[in-house]
Structure formats: structure tokens, C-alpha cells
């Protein structure tokens, strides 16, 4: 899973959406690539503007709700399984105005010294 953090720069959205469009729809109707944006309104706008399946776009609020209580034993290699169990899909492209804190996933935060 790739996590791409960016501001609201024009051009970047188009590039990210094109990469998300490269995702495949699974047999159960979920998508292999999902774009995460700042707000519900922005998600709806991008879905309309770029003709994406609404299930391929999630708002940051949704992402944060998922972020709240990941299992304590969550490791990077089973992150995708956990996300799939929560979402029914694995976000592989993420753009958000807020930074994604790696430490939230049970990995150590960087320390000085």
C-alpha cells in the first residue's frame, strides 16, 4: 500500500486519480485502489468530475474513524488485511491535508538520539 500525503495542489489530484483509475474492481464489487481526500464534499466533487466509482473515494473523516482503534498487534504486513476487514477495500493511494502518523499503526515514532 502506498500512502501519498499532499496538500490541495492542482495537477496532483489529476495524477492521483489517474493512478486510482488503474485499480481493478474485484468480484465482490470493491476496488483495489482507493483515493482518500480531505472532506465528504471534496470526495463527491472528485467522483463527479473524474467519473470515478464513489466507492473509490473516501473522505479523511472516514479514514480517521478507521484510524481511531486499530488492533494493538497491528503490524505493517497485516495492515492491508485489517483495512480490508474495515472497508471492504484497501486504500493504496491516499491524499490528505493532514499528515498520516505512522506511529498510529503500532510502529515506533522516531525519537531524537
Question: In words, what does this structure look like?
Answer:
The chain has four helices and three strands. It is mainly α and about 110 residues long. The chain has one domain (about 10-100). It has a three-stranded parallel beta sheet with strand order 2-1-3. β1 (about 35), α2 (about 40-50) and β2 (about 55-60) form a beta-alpha-beta unit. The longest helix has 11 residues, at about 40-50. The radius of gyration is 14 Å and the shape is globular.
Question: Tags for this entry?
Answer:
globular, disordered N terminus, three-stranded parallel sheet, 3 strands, single chain, mainly alpha, 113 residues, 7% strand
Show the helix and strand layout.
Layout: H1 12-21, E1 35-37, H2 40-50, E2 57-59, H3 60-68, H4 79-87, E3 93-94
What structural class do helix, strand and pairing data support? Answer: mainly alpha
Q: What is the end-to-end distance?
A: 30 Å
What is the percentage of strand-forming residues?
A: 5-15%
Number of strands: 3
**Helix-strand topology string:** HEHEHHE
> Main sheet, how many strands, which sense, barrel?
3 strands, parallel
The rounded Rg comes to 14 Å
Domains, number: 1
Number of helices: 4
Overall geometric form: globular
Helix content: 25-40%
Q: Outline of this structure?
A:
By secondary structure, this protein is mostly helical.
